[in-house]
């Protein structure tokens, strides 16, 4: 599980049947200091995250586990919305 910031949405007129009704979001992976890591990716969202929110996401098979059809073919999926983070230094 990794952390990311939602930076956009994806509009798709045609989807495979396994992810119909599932929102696709553009997320930017970040570290614990909210600094960007790598390039943005597209993740399936079943929780209703919005642009500007921080989320947890998983890649590969684990990313699809929270979708209505857990065997859906997605590269990444949002597994939770982050309310707050506390890091003790």
Description:
The chain has one domain: OB fold (Dihydrolipoamide Acetyltransferase, E2P). It has a 5-stranded antiparallel sheet. It has one helix at 61-64; strands spanning 2-10, 23-30, 41-45, 54-59, 76-81. The longest helix is centred in the C-terminal third of the chain and has 4 residues, at 61-64. 20% of the residues are buried. The mean pLDDT is 90. With 89 residues, the chain is mostly beta strands. The chain is globular and about 45 Å long. The two termini are 22 Å apart.
In a nutshell, what does this entry contain?
The protein contains one helix and five strands; from the N terminus they run E-E-E-E-H-E. The protein has one helix spanning 61-64; strands spanning 2-10, 23-30, 41-45, 54-59, 76-81.
Summarize the topology.
Elements: E1 2-10, E2 23-30, E3 41-45, E4 54-59, H1 61-64, E5 76-81
Antiparallel strand pairs: 1-2, 1-4, 2-3, 4-5
